[in-house]
Amino acid sequence: MRILLHTCCGPCTIFPLKSLREKGFEVFGFYYNPNIHPYQEWERRLEALRQVANLVDDRGPMPLIVGEEYPLEEFLRNVVFREENRCIYCYTLRLEATARLAKKSRFDAFTTTLLYSKRQKHDLIRGIAENAGRRFSIGFYYEDFRMGWRLGQEEAVKMGIYRQKYCGCIYSEKERFYKDDRLLVPSKGEK
Q1: Is 123 buried (19+), middle (13-18) or exposed (0-12) by CB count in 10 A?
Q2: Assign residue 106 a region: left if phi > 0, alpha if psi is -120 to 50, beta otherwise?
Q3: Prior bond of 11 cis (ω within 30°)
Q4: CB of 143 within 8 A of CB of 111?
Q5: 9-36 pLDDT, tens digit each
Q6: Taking Cα atoms as reference points, which of 3, 20, 1, 2 lies closest to residue 116?
Q7: Domains and CATH numbers, the chain
Q8: How far apart are alpha carbons 79 and 5 in whole angstroms?
Q9: Global pTM value
Q10: Cα(79)–Cα(65) distance, rounded to whole angstroms?
Q11: 100, 60 Cβ separation under 8 angstroms
């Protein structure tokens, strides 16, 4: 079976790719992530993915399809004033693009590396992917890749692959770095 694997980055691809290949799938990667900001981060994650696609195992490189467009403005227009629900839009955008491409390119199914991360909203991703599969009449392959989290991260370190520190969108980057001191309650003696 040929499967299209939506890929968010290199480290998150390692375990799902190995698992799918062990199950007999012919895996093609699809990098489509207009949520990743800034653009230099998008490029850095793509480069890490290319390294993984070429190095992950002895079965040869994983063919990689890259969605080269970077619709920053569209992404931001669709999440602004809905920041608390931005993940719904983000997952839907990427998973529907994957399902659409899988159907158009006559893959047997699609899946996503988003199911690998312990930090993502697993059940939401699964539901959106299942809906995308129905909408575009293409099978969605579900596997809980989180069981390989540690293995994939350790392998990324061994391979020297760039490992990002935030989900990808500008809001998650802010949450990583920005601490609003106004929200802190001063202890006795502090002003």
Answers
A1: exposed
A2: left
A3: no
A4: yes
A5: 999 999 999 999 999 999 999 999 998 8
A6: 20
A7: 2-183 (3.40.50.620)
A8: 25
A9: 0.87
A10: 26
A11: no
